[in-house]
Amino acid sequence: MISEKDAQYLEGESNSEKYRENRFIPLKNVYLNPEYRGRFTIKTPEKVKRIHDGDVVWVDSPEKDRASVGLIYVQTLDGRAGFKAPWEAKGGLTDWYHFREILRFGVDAVGAANNLRRGNKDERPLLLSFYDSELAQYRQSELWKPRHPIGVIVTGSGKIKEGLDNLVFTNEGRAVIFTSEAGRENLESSVKDYPNISVEVIGKEPRKLDMKQMLRILKSKYDVERFLALGGPGFSTELIMQGCVDNYFINISPELSGNDKIRSFFSHQDGLPELMDLELVSLKMLKYPKGEGAFTLYSHYVPKIN
Ligand SMILES: NC(=O)c1ccc[n+]([C@@H]2O[C@H](COP(=O)([O-])OP(=O)(O)OC[C@H]3O[C@@H](n4cnc5c(N)ncnc54)[C@H](OP(=O)(O)O)[C@@H]3O)[C@@H](O)[C@H]2O)c1
Fold it and tell me: What is the CATH number of the domain that holds 213?
């Protein structure tokens, strides 16, 4: 089912040399909110602690019937963070490791909007799993989680351009597509050949999907406690507008400006109905060697806990 090209790509992703610790420049905490010191932490492997300068913090949802959400977004200075290729963000290897591995080893599902690709057309579609074998081992033996998080795709239309036969759905794990009633009809014939893909309807119309319903289904039916959302901008704006984001992981590249045709991670036409009461959990910084961008800031915000 999986193409030869995808199989080769997957093998490359599983290469343990790629995850050698000395390839990653460690982050440094420039601020750590004392309220979160030692609290709300995910049990974190030593390797991650060294690169991330401490445990991974994740605040669960106050609504116990749904999965909690972490939103990861890479930001340019002007917020219009669309790059032709991820490396244009000048993030380098630590950014890649943070987004691809550090934020994933402890989550139960990783989700993206329809057709989110890594960048250039010739690249393979974005993987919704993680591949550091040390972290994969830790996840299974210490966190008692299955090898791969569930892959989630959100599509109102149900029209997935590249079809289902790509890595997004053959990440060796399970995948769930959340869609509308119309979307389900469009997906029906293609999904029947994939026993590990299920389809869930969370709205009547393509642009009126109930994100909380998605999170309730993920928790009650798929045992998902933590859901990492990768965007893009339409999907993340919808999650924010529907009050679903429990952790904002925003990595800022202070040097770069973006593409003004691309929207930012929050880009609702009317703005927020009211201000959010957020607080900063941590701010981390990375210094690059000359030529790789000056530095990057990693911020983690959560809705204020009263
Ligand atoms: N900087 C970052 O961290 C980051 C992260 C992600 C993406 N990006 C960039 O952002 C740009 C746009 O990405 P994108 O087009 O994938 O993102 P998007 O704006 O989230 O939209 C992608 C698709 O997701 C579905 N969707 C989005 N909003 C929805 C809603 N409110 N209700 C139901 N379905 C919804 C739609 O699928 P259907 O049409 O099938 O209904 C839509 O076509 C790209 O250049 C990408 O590289 C940047």
Answer: 3.40.430.10
